[in-house]
Amino acid sequence: MKRIEVLGPGCSNCKVLYERTQRAAKELGLECEIEKITDLNVIMGYRVMSTPGLVVDGELKFSGRVPSVEQLKELLS
Amino acid sequence: MSELAATPTLSKVRGARLGRWLVPALLLWIVAYVFLERLSTWLTHDLLRLSPATHLGSAVAFFIYEAPKVLLLLTLVVFGVGVVRSFFTPERTRAILAGKAESVGNVLAAALGIVTPFCSCSAVPLFIGFLTAGIPLGVTLSFLISAPMVNEIALALLFGLFGWKVAALYLGTGLTVAIVAGWVIGRLKLERHVEPWVYQMQTGPPNLLLPSLTWEGRLRAGLDAVRDIVGKVWPYVLAGIAVGAGIHGWVPENFMASIMGKGVWWSVPLAVIIGVPMYSNAAGIIPIVHALLEKGAALGTVLAFMMAVIALSLPETIILRKVLRPVLLAVFLGVVTVGIILVGYLFNWLI
């Protein structure tokens, strides 16, 4: 089961990424746990300088962009 | 500094190759732009039968001409800048700035602020990332001033509505304010007024995640930028143009000269002080700026007002308070405000 973290302090982009990630996972039928991380300490722990960011199973996949649902599906599969 | 040359999974394009569409799209854009004036005159005068001598006719003509023109310009520039930005990341900017001496650093930081993708909610992580990489406080602040203020939307719209000279002036003075303000704050040695926890964050090798994008990927980045930015901003643009149209049609000539004109020495500081707490994206405010100028407001005052609105805002101040202690925050706001006021006076004097 994948563990997905959406990193962002709470601006609109971060919320959009969170929703799109949920949709992508749902459309893929993916078994996963999606968590929204707003704690700056954790975010900096991944050395992210530009939010929002996406972490899958502890590995940072990208930061500073909000990909489309299609692009997210490619990334998560 | 190694980049992950991974397969660009995020930039895969299904179907038609984008590159093929670029030239036809540009030609179409040029045609649309050139015919705009004729089309809008025809629409207002012949189709709607509104005389330009009336308030309504004047306002409607303004709106029908400006709205598509501004949106076309915006689309082109956002696309272009989206492509340019695909070459930059905050990580790369940080790598470039680390280890540079202060004055050089200030200039580079301000310049990079224009092309590095930046969203104001990233201000805090970016600030921390820069400082922990050893980039001086003043240089980091030069970046943080230039990034929101000298943005492509503002430049595109200024260029489209007032010509390249005004756009270049805004660019030049915006950079100057960013460079000088950052440098001055650096000289004041206010590092101890940064929240201490910032310096305690762990440093480490930067995460350079940008996969090497193909040109296909870069064009797609441009399109994504258009969809995201223009898609989000167009209602504000139309609202701004509508207000501008109203001012154009109804406010008497020279009305603005009395409060924002050159003769009034306090108009610049007043405009800036009103502008600082306000927040608007550049797209919404520029059409209003246009109408104000038409009615006699002085260029320096209006540009200063615009800079004040875009560069500083209450939301941004609240965000920065997380990393800057009150003294430093106040100095930051103060120095930038004074810089903008000086710019306003300079323009009024020069032009």
Features:
heterodimer; A: 77 residues; alpha+beta; Glutaredoxin; 4-stranded mixed β-sheet; 4 strands; 40% helix; 27% strand; globular; B: 351 residues; mainly alpha; 0% strand
Describe the structure.
- The complex is a heterodimer of chains A (77) and B (351).
- In chain A, a hairpin with a 2-residue loop joins strand 3 and strand 4 (59-63).
- A 4-stranded mixed β-sheet of chain A has the order 2-1-3-4.
- Chain A has 77 residues and is α+β, with helices and mostly antiparallel strands.
- Chain A has 3 helices and 4 strands; from the N terminus they run βαβαββα.
- Chain A is globular, with a radius of gyration of 11 Å.
- The relative contact order of chain A is 0.28.
- In chain A, helix 1 (12-28) packs across helix 3 (69-76).
- Chain A has a single domain, classed as Glutaredoxin.
- Chain B contains 16 helices and no strands.
- In chain B, helix 8 (164-187) runs antiparallel to helix 16 (326-350), helix 12 (267-275) packs parallel to helix 14 (299-311) and helix 12 (267-275) crosses helix 16 (326-350).
- With 351 residues, chain B is mostly helical.
- Chain B has helices spanning 19-47, 55-85, 90-97, 102-115, 123-132, 137-149, 152-162, 164-187, 196-200, 215-250, 255-260, 267-275, 282-294, 299-311, 314-320, 326-350.
- Chain B has one domain (19-201, 213-350).
- Chain B is globular and about 70 Å long.
- Chains A and B meet through helix 2, strand 4 and helix 3 of A and helix 3 and helix 5 of B.
Topology (SSEs and partners):
The complex is a heterodimer of chains A (77) and B (351).
Chain A: E1 2-7, H1 12-28, E2 32-37, H2 40-45, E3 53-56, E4 59-63, H3 69-76
Parallel strand pairs in A: 1-2
Antiparallel strand pairs in A: 1-3, 3-4
Helix pairs in contact in A: 1-3
Chain B: H1 19-47, H2 55-85, H3 90-97, H4 102-115, H5 123-132, H6 137-149, H7 152-162, H8 164-187, H9 196-200, H10 215-250, H11 255-260, H12 267-275, H13 282-294, H14 299-311, H15 314-320, H16 326-350
Helix pairs in contact in B: 1-2, 2-7, 2-10, 4-6, 4-8, 5-6, 6-8, 7-8, 7-13, 8-16, 10-13, 12-14, 12-16, 13-14, 14-16
